[in-house]
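Figure 6 in text form: structure in, sequence out.
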């Protein structure tokens, strides 16, 4: 009986969180939450990510679609490794399961029609950044929501690497900096909000970045 009550309380808190995200997206086209994933999942994904990075299994990130990729260091300086759902580790599976649950709720309540998810690890070494851009391609508008999960446990403000979202309303542009705090999850509308990653001043900026895609 107690276990059932606890499970229901957890489920209720999760629904409350989802509803808050949906409300944020409707009101301001982005949402920032600090408790989307279990801390143990985030810590272990970070450790796995660093292991992959140490054995040089990341590749230089490019701009453009997969059929028209161009490496432009003056625009984008991160290194990425795609997360393969079919060969995911235990904690990657738990992370993806959490995303799947959220997407099921979105599709049921908001009828977004999200049918695909793509996620990768992203490492920004010192001195790198990503210039202002949208997360969609010229002839491919399937990305509906962008999602970023931050993994650095000891990141300080002087280290840089903030996400900056640019939001225009009433012909005025609002600049919204978002600090990459450990475990923080940011969601925003891929087709609407331009954004950038500011230059990293120290260390490795670690995150998981992905997109929820429609048809």
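Output sequence:
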């Amino acid at each position: 009986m107690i276990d059932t009550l606890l499970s229901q309380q957890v489920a209720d808190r999760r629904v409350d969180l989802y509803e808050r995200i949906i409300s944020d997206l409707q009101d301001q086209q982005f949402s920032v939450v600090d408790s989307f994933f279990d801390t143990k999942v985030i810590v272990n994904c970070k450790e796995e990510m660093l292991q992959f990075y140490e054995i040089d299994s990341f590749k230089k990130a490019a701009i453009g679609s997969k059929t028209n990729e161009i490496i432009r260091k003056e625009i984008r300086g991160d290194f990425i490794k795609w997360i393969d759902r079919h060969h995911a580790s235990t904690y990657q599976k738990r992370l993806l399961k959490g995303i799947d649950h959220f997407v099921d709720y979105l599709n049921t309540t908001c009828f977004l029609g999200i049918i695909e998810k793509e996620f990768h690890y992203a490492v920004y070494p010192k001195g790198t950044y990503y210039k202002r851009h949208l997360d969609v391609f010229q002839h491919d508008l399937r990305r509906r929501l962008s999602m970023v999960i931050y993994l650095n446990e000891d990141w300080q403000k002087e280290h840089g690497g903030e996400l900056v979202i640019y939001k225009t309303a009433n012909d005025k542009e609002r600049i919204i900096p978002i600090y990459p705090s450990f475990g923080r999850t940011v969601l925003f509308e891929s087709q609407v909000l331009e954004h950038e990653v500011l230059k990293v001043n120290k260390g490795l900026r670690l995150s998981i970045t992905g997109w929820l895609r429609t048809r």
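Caption detail: The chain has a mean pLDDT of 91.
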